[in-house]
Structures are given as structure tokens and as C-alpha cells.
Write a structure and sequence with these properties.
With about 150 residues, the protein is α+β, with helices and mostly antiparallel strands. It contains one helix and nine strands. The strands form two sheets. Strands 3, 4, 6, 8 and 9 form a five-stranded antiparallel β-sheet that branches.
Length: about 150
């Protein structure tokens, strides 16, 4: 059997064919990009554990320049403190209030277990004015940050 195409019918114009190919290529690129980004997003944190800190309460005594903060680890992994700032200035001395005889000179020694609440005493390195609010920032080794404003009394 020999079939012949009728000569009076026309195919898709070259311009329309080119536009269709471009649309198909862009759609394929978007699908590939979303798949790769989804894969990368899940593979960068394989354990699914995240750090998260909150504070339950604080007292900020301007006469002694001491800030006592009750910090709670609400995340799914243990955290280790790496730095503390008050008013944008790095604080060199802070410690767990349950062991005040051992000030932390190496900040990597202060840890927060999962679900634990730790009382932390921070000794401000600058003079603290009563009634003034100071930004307090705790930074952990994994990048977890707790920031809040404390008003000195």
C-alpha cells in the first residue's frame, strides 16, 4: 500500500514549531531545577535536627551589670554556646548559674541539652544604665541565635 499525502494541506509553520520547542525546553528546565533544589534542600540537613533557643525569664541588675537569663533549648539537638553580646559588644565572661564558681572563659563549655532550661549569668563588659533596653544575643556553634531586648532595672 502506498499512501500519498495530499499536497494541499500545510504543516505547522517554522515559527510556531520553534516557539513550541522553546516552551518545552523551558518547562523541562523548570522541572529539573525544582527537583535538584528539593534534593539539595533535604540533603544539606540529613538528620533533620535543628537548634532553637528561647528564654523563659531574665533579670538585669544595673548595679552589678549582671544579666541572668533562663534559656530553654526547644530544638531537637543539643547546643553549645559560642558567643554572647550585650548592646552589640562581645561579652567575655558568662557562666551557668548552677556553677557560679566556674566562670566560662571558653564559651564552648556552656551547653544546652534538648529540652533543658539553663540559668546563665552574663557579666556585661560595659556600664549598664537603669531603665535602658539592650539587645542581648546568644550565638551557638551551629549558628543558632537567640536575640531579645532586656531592660536593666
Amino acid at each position: 500500500m502506498n499512501f500519498k499525502l495530499p499536497k494541499c494541506k500545510k504543516g505547522v509553520s517554522p515559527i510556531i514549531a520553534t516557539l513550541l520547542l522553546i516552551v518545552i525546553a523551558v518547562a523541562a528546565a523548570v522541572v529539573t531545577y525544582s527537583f535538584v533544589m528539593g534534593f539539595i534542600g533535604t540533603s544539606t540537613n540529613p538528620s533533620g535536627q535543628q537548634g532553637q533557643l528561647t528564654y523563659d525569664a531574665y533579670t538585669f541588675d544595673s548595679s552589678t551589670d549582671n544579666l541572668t537569663v533562663y534559656i530553654r533549648n526547644t530544638g531537637s539537638k543539643a547546643l553549645t554556646l559560642s558567643a554572647c553580646y550585650i548592646g552589640g559588644q562581645l561579652v567575655s565572661q558568662y557562666y551557668n548559674a548552677t556553677t557560679p564558681e566556674n566562670p566560662v572563659t571558653n564559651p564552648n563549655q556552656l551547653s544546652f541539652g534538648v529540652g533543658s532550661v539553663e540559668p546563665v549569668i552574663v557579666i556585661a563588659s560595659q556600664g549598664i544604665a537603669s531603665g535602658t533596653g539592650y539587645e542581648v544575643r546568644f550565638v551557638c556553634t551551629d549558628g543558632t541565635i537567640l536575640t531579645f531586648t532586656a531592660v536593666a532595672s
